[in-house]
Amino acid sequence: MAAVLAGLGGALPAGVVTNDDLCRELDSTHEWIETRTGISERRMVAAGQSTRDLAVEAGARALKSAGRSEVDAVVVATTSADRLCPAVAPEVAHQLGLGTVPAYDLTSACSGFLYGLASAVGHIASGVADRVLFIGAEAFTTMVNPGDRGTAPIFGDGAGAVVLRRGRPDEPGAVGPFDLGSDGSLADLLAIPAGGSRQRSATGGPGHEGVPAEDWFLHMEGRPLYVQAVERMTASSRAVLDRVGWSVPDVDVFAGHQANVRIVRAVAEELELPDDRVAVNIDRVGNTLAASIPLLLIDAVVRGRLNPGQRVLLSAFGAGLSWGSTALTWPDLSVEEVC
Ligand code: UT7
Prior knowledge:
Elements: E1 2-11, E2 15-18, H1 19-23, H2 30-37, E3 41-44, H3 51-66, E4 73-77, H4 89-95, E5 103-106, H5 112-125, E6 131-138, E7 158-167, E8 178-182, E9 190-191, E10 219-220, H6 222-244, E11 253-256, H7 261-271, H8 282-285, H9 292-302, E12 311-318, E13 322-329
Parallel strand pairs: 4-5, 4-6, 11-12
Antiparallel strand pairs: 1-7, 2-3, 6-7, 8-13, 9-10, 12-13
Helix pairs in contact: 3-4, 6-7
Bound molecules: oxa(dethia)-CoA.
Family: Belongs to the thiolase-like superfamily. FabH family.
GO biological process, one term: secondary metabolite biosynthetic process
Subcellular location: Cytoplasm
């Protein structure tokens, strides 16, 4: 028995923010951002629009792509849920008309898609569910200091969703073995210090004495993260290729988390994967954390870069630190372009 990819859908906020738009308020340039990250523009939620809204839209598209609206569970991976409590998934399930199915969030930042996919596969493998809707959804730009040039240009908002169904391991779309890992000794490299139980929200909001305003926003040490990202994604990709029994030339498409185009290219170089096998959409969406890989897969499908029967390697890395990889042979899916 296996979990098979049966549907895929995405959502992006309408608001396009170019590098030039950002640089009106930020001490940076389009050239710096494009050269150092590969990003030209990203989408940002409008006032009043939240992660839940994007998750519902992506979820609806994934259910449509799967051709059936029933599922037995909803899992949402997000690091920018609408509220600290409750999870966003029950509301998403409700708004999608899925009734009282089990629904929960998980938080694994940029590796959220891999961790969530593993959880969804686990529900099917354990017999808890026959069909699972799994959504990676983020409005993470709301958690980034718009005045911090080290982080503001990097992130974008969006959501990507998949439907998994019970199937056979030899079917196209059967999600392969996973490699997952973490290193909490480096947790401070990418963190939002305030708002949790350590710097308690009960002590006040932004600007409250004792909680510096910037602690409500993301803190990131880009350089060491970059090095970790390349090392971890490369090692994790190799581990999964070993488990699935593929060698590097067997990989038709490398769908790596879009944190920085230089990271993705560096991983591909370490793996000796040619550039034309590397999927890239960061130029248009930035780093969308848990939504990154499904949005990338949608982009690759609608551009004709990813076709049924092709072998796909997925790999991600993010805060935690955490990382993960898996592989699958692409199934025949009808996928709508996300505009
Ligand atoms: O999603 C998973 C987790 N996140 C990541 O994996 C992020 C990994 N890191 C990165 O992608 C890169 O480190 C960044 C894109 C964040 C930064 O690029 P970098 O090439 O590592 O730049 P840097 O931080 O080493 O900074 C180089 C220079 C510095 O100036 P000096 O000290 O050399 O004079 C920065 O102050 O670039 C400066 N700088 C900028 N200049 C213009 C940093 N950000 C900007 C900016 N515009 N936005």
